[in-house]
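DM from R.C. (forwarded with permission)

"hey, sorry to bug you on a friday — could you get me a structure for this? deadline for the figure draft is monday and I only need the backbone to look sensible"
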Amino acid sequence: LAAMAAPAVWRARREPGAQFLLAWLVPSWIVFEAVLTKLPHYVLPLYPAIAILTAGAVERRVLSRSWLMRGSAWWFAIPAAASIIAVVGAVMLTRQPAFVAWPFIAASLIFGLFAWWLYDNNRAERSLLNALVAALMLAVTVYGIVLPSLTPLFPSIEIARALRNVACVGPKAAAAGYHEPSLVFLTGTQTLLTDGSGAADFLRQGSCRFALIEQRSERSFVQRAEAIGLRYKVGTRIEGYNFSQGRAIAISIFRSEGTE
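My reply, with the result:
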């Protein structure tokens, strides 16, 4: 709908209301595009401006005729494509059939098809309600089922789970090479962010200590451990994907000898 309303919004750009909404929307959107980190909730304050501009075009019945059929077709095409991509991707990465997601995919496709089929100027509201339900079902599929199952995308969660399962009481950790904010959030602010050498020194200071060493920092960790005579063992190895940096990672959890 926003794309279908865009030509009418541009024609009305000199109206005070449209100017206010565009001043709310455009500069902020440019800033969000320029910022490197992009999370879905960042742009939420801009959605009301888009919604008001779009609703105004619907009420005036000035949606672009050239976009009318193509625009409403996306209400079926987007849920269909996104659902299929999400589930196929989850099956390929996890080797699981993701049966739980299938009913929500079916509902998303059905309501998206109704949104496309019902749309015209006289039934825009009814079509929009079907599109909203399709979007809700798609959100449940992607955010509620598929993404949580993609454990390689969330190495911090796997690290925190491994530390919770240790036998000793009050584990302490030092991380080298992997310093994502999510790691500190999940393992606690006492987690030491350091390099490979610093992690070896940390491990030597007592029992129930664990060194979280990203693959690129392993060499400096091993060299420092040999230099100070540290005896250690590998507890587990976690492989995943750091999507904020766009690369695969492997993190080994080392423990001092004698730590369970």
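R.C.: lifesaver. The mean pLDDT is 84.
me: no worries. The radius of gyration is 25 Å.
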